[in-house]
Amino acid sequence: MTSLRRRIVSRAAEIFCAFSVLVALLPLAFILFYVIKEGIGAMNLAFFTQMPKPVGEAGGGMANAIVGTLILIGLAALFAVPVGVICGIHLSEYPKSKFSTMARFAADVLNGVPSIVIGIFAYGIAVLPVKRFSAIAGGIALGILMLPIVIRTTEELLRLVPAGLREGALALGASRSRAIFSVILPAALPGILTGILVALARVAGETAPLLFTSFNNRFWTTNLGQPIASLTVQVFTYAISPYEDWHRQAWAGAFLLVMMILALSMIARFAVRRLERMNRP
Amino acid sequence: MRRGDDRWFRIGTGAFAALVLLVVAGIGFELTRQSLLSIEKFGFGFWKGRVWDPVSGDFGALPFIWGTLYSAILALLLSTPIALGIAVFISELSPRALRQPLAYLTELLAAIPSIVYGLWGIFVLVPIIRKLEVMLGAKPALGVGMLSAAVILAIMVVPLTSSVAREILKNVPSTQREAAYALGATRWEAIKVAIGFGRTGIIGAVMLGFGRALGETMAVTMVIGNNPQITASLFKPQYTMAAVIANEFTEAADELYLHALIEIGLLLFIITIAINLLSRLLVRKVTA
Asked: How far does the CA of residue A93 sit from the closest CA of chain B (Å)?
């Protein structure tokens, strides 16, 4: 009797677990469906090549915002990649030192700080002193957001490199730095690049830290000292506006963002698979 | 000579690592420095004040703290059972061939930017919630409000909690489950043993989700209605700490206003750090 009850409970719990997978995948399908449906409908050549039109005029595009996002994530990578990769090297080379523990901890902390707070920091160090919103400030905010991801992937991937490679290099008389930069880092490079791609995909979708760093710009600019448009901020502005035509553009912008991110994560997944196969003994 | 070389390598790369420490310390310093006016003027009263009136220069953060905690807790109530269910299904129940794809799909949910959630929230979720409110006879039936925010947060938090919980379950020694089976346990009873073994880590996973929900900005801003009021109503528009910063930062005309907003950011910084540290300690206890 009790055994029957227990078996029923067990079965019910298993069904609940399967059900919860469905519950989570439902919104995913729902969101992707809308982004694709509304986005494709609003997508056209003008979206990529034209500037935003003033209110009331139909058409126009997000050319400036697309370029703005590319500039911003380029700046972010410029700030975060050297620091992140070298910090990751240090952590993997001296994993147990007190200093490394502290730095790893700091990276963990940074990873949990809300992006809007990072935005305030970037505002404080890069906007306030010059009293002007700028692409540089936005790039700094996104760079700080990227940093923990780059550090972690670099550290983890360097540790995956077979010990034999390092021993071989050291046995040939290479110094530690030589062994790292000529042997170990190149072996892990594809993986690290993948991690950088994932990090870029993540920050390309950030909005909050850009609101008061790179701000927005209705005009075409590549001047790093000036406010600059970005896809995310533009989507936000359009989404909360009362205009039908702007809503359409917002969906198109969201579609482009999601496609960019999916493509990057797909490439990353493919690369990780290859790496795993390579490292299998 | 080699030894000297190594030392310079250590110091040189260490300088870059120090930069990371510097950034974290710099965030704390800068947020404090930029909120001094508000800290000096209001003291602890800032956290208890219920009035947010930029025109007369009276700032109290309680409605935002309330909205942030309330929305995050509601989101947690919605997301935790689902996230744990997913973790259990993927790590314990699912056929081996399905594991990777399912894990990948749930993580895809985490890759979608906040702004896209917000857009979807405004045009798809909010109308649905509005219909629900009309059905329930709720007043006002706006659609935007606490419930919409909680639902969107829950969806966004699920992938984080479930992926950490999955990692925890993977680290539970299989002897735990085998012992349970040997005593005649059903499948679910054996899973309960595994969950019990990893419970500190699972609590950590849930807390990580909580930390994420507290700091989430765009999606919440777009659906919560942005009205600083303290109410337990699920349907009324409310406001969160992150949302008020996002909305009013560039409008802050005088310095006190700006400093009050940055002080809210400072509190958000402190809370999220505390929660992240605690949850990481819990998670590490199990996985390390």
From this structure: 9
Minimum Cα–Cα distance from B278: chain A residue: A109
User: A267 falls in which pLDDT band (50, 70, 90)?
Assistant: confident
Nearest to B105 among A25, A91, A215 (CB): A25
- The phi-psi region of residue A201 (left if phi > 0; otherwise alpha if psi is between -120 and 50; otherwise beta) is alpha
- Residues B273 and A108 sit within 8 Å (Cβ to Cβ): no
How many Å apart are CA A169 and CA A181, to the nearest integer?
A: 11
Q: pLDDT, tens digit, for every residue of A100-156?
A: 999 999 999 999 999 999 999 999 999 999 999 999 999 999 999 999 999 999 999
pLDDT at position A264: 84
> DSSP character for A132?
S
Predicted model pTM:
0.93
Please list every residue in chain B whose beta carbon sits closer than 8 Å to the beta carbon of residue A92. Answer: none
b/e string for A74-86 if b means 16 or more Cβ within 10 A? ebbbebbbebbbb
The tens digit of pLDDT for each residue in B127-172 reads 999 999 999 887 778 899 999 999 999 999 999 999 999 999 999 9
Closest to A63 measured CA to CA, from A180, A188, A205, A230: A230
What mean pLDDT comes out for the span A233-238?
A: 94
Residues of A in contact with B31 (CB under 8 A): 117, 120-121, 124
Q: Which long-range contacts (CB under 8 A, 24 or more apart) does A216-221 make?
A: A217/A64, A217/A68, A218/A51, A218/A52, A218/A64, A219/A51, A219/A64, A220/A51, A220/A63, A220/A64, A220/A67, A221/A64, A221/A68
Architecture of domain A48-279: Orthogonal Bundle (1.10)
User: What mean pLDDT comes out for the span B212-235?
Assistant: 94
Listed by number, the residues of chain A in 56-115 with a beta carbon closer than 8 Å to a beta carbon of chain B are 82-83, 86-87, 89-91, 93-94, 99-100, 102-103, 106-115
User: Is-contact A140 A126, C-beta < 8 A?
Assistant: yes
Scanning every residue of chain A, which has its alpha carbon at the shortest distance from the alpha carbon of B245?
A116
Stretch A34-41: mean pLDDT: 93
Is the bond preceding residue B127 a cis peptide, omega within 30 degrees?
no
Structure tokens at A117: 């707070």
Could you give the domains of chain B? 34-287 (1.10.3720.10)
Task: Tell if the CB–CB gap between A114 and B114 is shorter than 8 Å.
Answer: no
Among A34, A102, A121, A144, most B C-beta atoms within 10 A, so best to mutate, is A121
Give the Cα separation of A110 and A149 in Å (integer). Answer: 10
Mean pLDDT of B42-59: 92
How far apart, in whole angstroms, are the C-alpha atoms of residue A115 and residue A206? 8
* Residues of chain B contacting A82 with CB distance shorter than 8 Å: 16
Residues of B in contact with A115 (CB under 8 A): 215, 217
pLDDT score of A281 more than 70: no
Going from N- to C-terminal start, the domains of chain A cover: 2-42, 48-279
The verdict on a CB contact (< 8 Å) between A25 and B155 is no
Contact flag A112-B211 (C-beta cutoff 8 Å): yes
